[in-house]
């Protein structure tokens, strides 16, 4: 069967609960065993403003992608693109995305932009269609939960010895404090990458309408100081992944340009998580490119905490609809 015939044979519909196992079948080799789909698919099905599109060939699910309406309905964020491994490279992803675009244009004419995140270096053709909005660099670490306590103690000692003055004590924010701060002029203008809130690959404008999206995520918010912070961080709830039978994954996004402040809130996030963590941990921390080398150097240790991957990026892309 030719590639053109493959594309013509794909029929599109919305995902349902009964598609779960087939969706997992096309996710099995994704993201080094860190695929989030097993724990997000059911939540996504019921999330306000989210549509999950499925591509089928006969009775088989061969592709999926999600579209989340954000920014008060002005933007759609595409997430979770998956194509069956034996059908990749045949144009199915492109046809699925055109179907989604046509649906959004017809049913949500108020949407003016499409936004997405990419971890692999996009092709030149992608940059013809999309503009780069923001970039973060990922520091990825892994360890047994029992070794994280040693790492935290080592990191705390190192940061204390490096400080030239009495450092601020990081503050855990309640939801109201976090929402007030993330929309403040100081944070928006000085800390957010290109004035974009990036939470676990979800790029949001700092507007009131997006606060409800953030509330759903169960985030832990920590700043280096409560008023006009130099770093603000948000951490996802750890979730099980297939990398190992007892593996947990979580993501920390840190916004700020001061290495000392970024390190302080990074440490504080780990300290907050420590009591609840078990098993094998893989955690990603997303930071401004200029502080990544210093954070990586700071995280070299003697506590059996290893780098999971080397340098990798998260690019936020956008195009007009």
From TrEMBL:
What is the official name of this protein in its record?
N-acetyltransferase 16, like isoform X1
Q: Which domain of life is it from?
A: Eukaryota
Q: Name one Pfam family in it.
A: Acetyltransf_1
Residues annotated as domain N-acetyltransferase? 10-142
Q: Which GO terms describe its molecular function?
A: acyltransferase activity, transferring groups other than amino-acyl groups
PROSITE patterns in the record:
GNAT (PS51186)
State the SUPFAM superfamilies in the record: Acyl-CoA N-acyltransferases (Nat)
Q: Which organism is it from?
A: Xyrichtys novacula (Pearly razorfish)
């Amino acid at each position: 069967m030719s590639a053109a015939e493959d594309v013509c044979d794909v029929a599109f519909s919305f995902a349902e609960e009964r598609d779960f196992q087939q969706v997992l079948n096309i996710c099995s080799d994704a993201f080094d065993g860190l695929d989030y789909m097993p724990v997000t698919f059911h939540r996504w099905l019921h999330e306000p403003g989210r549509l999950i599109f499925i591509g089928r060939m006969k009775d088989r699910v061969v592709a999926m992608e999600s579209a989340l309406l954000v920014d008060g309905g002005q933007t759609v964020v595409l997430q979770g693109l998956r194509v069956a491994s034996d059908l990749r490279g045949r144009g199915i992803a492109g046809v699925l995305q055109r179907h989604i675009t046509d649906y959004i244009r017809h049913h949500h004419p108020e949407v003016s932009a499409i936004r997405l995140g990419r971890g692999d270096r996009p092709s030149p053709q992608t940059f013809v269609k999309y503009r780069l909005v923001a970039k973060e660099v990922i520091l990825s670490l892994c360890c047994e939960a029992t070794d994280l306590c040693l790492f935290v103690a080592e990191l705390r000692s190192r940061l204390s010895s490096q400080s030239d003055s009495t450092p601020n004590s990081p503050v855990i924010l309640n939801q109201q404090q976090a929402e007030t701060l993330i929309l403040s002029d100081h944070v928006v203008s000085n800390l957010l990458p290109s004035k974009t809130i990036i939470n676990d690959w979800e790029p949001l404008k700092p507007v009131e309408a997006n606060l409800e999206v953030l509330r759903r995520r169960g985030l832990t918010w920590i700043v280096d100081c409560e008023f006009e912070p130099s770093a603000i961080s948000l951490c996802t709830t750890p979730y099980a992944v297939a990398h190992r039978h007892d593996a947990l994954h979580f993501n920390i996004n840190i916004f700020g340009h001061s290495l000392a402040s970024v390190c302080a809130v990074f440490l504080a996030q780990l300290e907050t998580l420590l009591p609840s963590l078990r098993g094998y941990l893989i955690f990603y921390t997303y930071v401004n490119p200029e502080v990544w080398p210093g954070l990586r150097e700071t995280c070299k240790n003697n506590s059996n905490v290893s780098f999971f991957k080397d340098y990798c990026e998260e690019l936020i892309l956008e195009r007009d609809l």
